[in-house]
Structure formats: C-alpha cells, structure tokens
Amino acid sequence: MNKVSVIVPVYNAQNFLEKCIESLTQQTLKEMELIFVNDGSTDQSLQILEKYQKRFPKKVMVYSKENGGQASARNLGIAKSRGEYIGFIDADDYVDTHMYEAMYKKAKKENSDYVECQYHYLQIDAKGQEKEIPQYGHVRAYNSEKEMFIDPLVSPWNKLYRASVLKENQCQFTEGVIYEDTAFYIKVIPYLKKRSFLPEAYVYHYLWPGSTMNDKKYERVGNIFVVLEDVIKYYKENGFEHIYGMELEYFCVKILLCSSLKRIAQINNKKIRNQLVKRTNRFIKEYFPEYRKNAYVRKEHTGLYMRCMNAVTIFAAVCVFRLRHKK
Q1: Can you say whether the dihedral through the CA atoms of 161, 162, 164, 169 is positive or negative?
Q2: pLDDT for 326
Q3: Residue ranges per structural domain of the chain
Q4: What CATH class has 4-214?
Q5: CA separation (Å) from 43 to 94, 132, 150, 302?
C-alpha cells in the first residue's frame, strides 16, 4: 500500500509543471503515488504528464477529464487514490524533496489525522527574480479542533490528511465555485481528532499574476454566500453546530468582513460592488445577528474592527480597501 497519495490538478500549466513534477518524483519517501488530473488542458500539459508517466509508470498516474475546475479535479484524485494519507499540491508550485517523508513520519509517530507544515510564499518581481513575500493565514500547531477555526490557512497544499477520514466521511471539495478550499477545510475539521505540525517550510507557493487570488475578473465573488450557507447547513445537519457554533460564527463573519470585502472592493462596477456589500450586511444579520457578543470577536486582534462594522461603516471599509488596492 502506498503511504502517501499526492493529488495535483493540472490546467494549462506547461510553463511550470515540470518543476512541480520533478520535486514530487524526487521525494525521499518511496512508497508514494502521484495522481495528476488533467482538467481539460489545451496546452502541452498532457504531453508533459505522459512523458513522466512513461518514466515512472508505477508512481505517476495521469487521468484526463473535461474542464470542470480545480475542485472537481481534486475530487477525482481522492476517488482514485490508494494511499494511507492524501496530500494536495498545485501544479504551479513545488515542494522540498523531504516533505512527504517528514510529514508521513510525523503522522505515524503521533497517529495523526492531519499534518500541516510551514511554507514559502514567493513572487516573481519585474526583473524575473523570486522574492519572498509575507504569508497569509496563521500556520501553527493546533491544540484542538476549535483552534483550527481561528485565522487558519485553509489552502490544502501544505497539509496531509488521513485518507480514511476523507473517504469515510465523504469529504469533498465544493465544485463550481471559488472558495472551495474554504468549504473543504471547514467541513473536515470535526473529523480531525489528532493533529500534528512541522515548523519546517516544505512548500514553495507562488503568487502568479494570473492566479485566482490575483484575477481581475471578480464575477464569482458572490460565491462566498453560497459556500458559507452550505457550510452552515452542513454543521447543522451533522450535529456540529452545538459543539463549534461560536468558532464557526467567528470564522464566517471574519471572512465576510475581511477577505471577502477586500475582493468586493476590487470590483470596478460600482453597482455590483454596492450590491455585494449590502448582501454581506444582510447575510450577517440573518445568520449571525449577535456576533459582536462572540468571545473570539471580543479578544482576537481583528475583534475591534469587526465590532465596529454596521450598515454604514461596512461601506467605509470597502472604500479604504479600494484605495489601498490602487496604491
């Protein structure tokens, strides 16, 4: 049995795919399978994948499907995986060759359902040089599931999950929306009874001009409401709300008032921008009308900002975010 399955969604990644594959095929952990899901690429990505599949026929698995997005590619990878643990890497990133051996050993030593490591956040400057930029998300050790709701890095590419946890609980990425990483991360938390952390930075994650986070087409920013409604429903239907209600409230309201507002602020169409701001305010009033009493809101460093938000100040916040973005 493979110790680790690494799932890599691939869509038109020919310019950086080989660097990613090389970092995975050279892993010091030998009992691995690398699952590449070609998500309808129209460039040379599939040819590159097939080249490596011929070189490593027992390790590299390639599956092709019609373009359906990163979430659907990852879900196919989960279904095809045979490893004891599952990891996810983006095709435009690469990893240290010791990453999965270190993470697997940590998982086995501590009998963990989940292992997380540090990462490097990189950007290519105007001269074509790599430079490290400030991280997003607070990557650290968690002492409980509840701590995982507070300022986490929801992205899956610096994590290792016990495969049985994902499969037995039918944990999948929400397809057809952005914020799929957010939904997946939050839905899995209640099942992660034992967690481990490695302080070493094993992942080299890039901010590319054409990445989702930096895309100027913000048509799907409103997906956040659909995603959070789905998460809230999931917690209610599975009996998790009474256990993690306070943490879920803090997590959802913080996303709406922080990262989501920042994306809304970058929409140039004023009418659409204002509609989404009003919808944000209505959503919070409907689902979390008493959030200002939340213990996390009262003690976390963003709490004062969150407590000050109302129908008027929320528009002011968007104006500030918009001005900062233009600088």
Answers
A1: negative
A2: 72
A3: 4-214, 223-326
A4: alpha beta
A5: 20, 29, 40, 43
| pLDDT of 17 strictly over 60 | yes
At residue 213 the predicted structure's pLDDT band, cuts being 50, 70 and 90, is: very low
Say if residues 194 and 114 touch (Cβ distance below 8 Å): yes
**Cβ contacts of 151 within 8 Å, gap of 6 or more:** 137, 138, 254, 300
Least confident of 124-133, 172-181, 252-261: 124-133
296, 247 contact by CB (below 8 A): yes
pLDDT band of 215, cuts 50, 70, 90: very low
Q: How sure is the predictor about 126, in pLDDT bands with cuts at 50, 70 and 90?
A: confident
- Answer yes or no: are the C-beta atoms of 166 and 159 closer than 8 Å: no
pLDDT, one tens digit per residue, over 36-47 is 999 999 999 999
Q: What is the pTM of this model?
A: 0.94
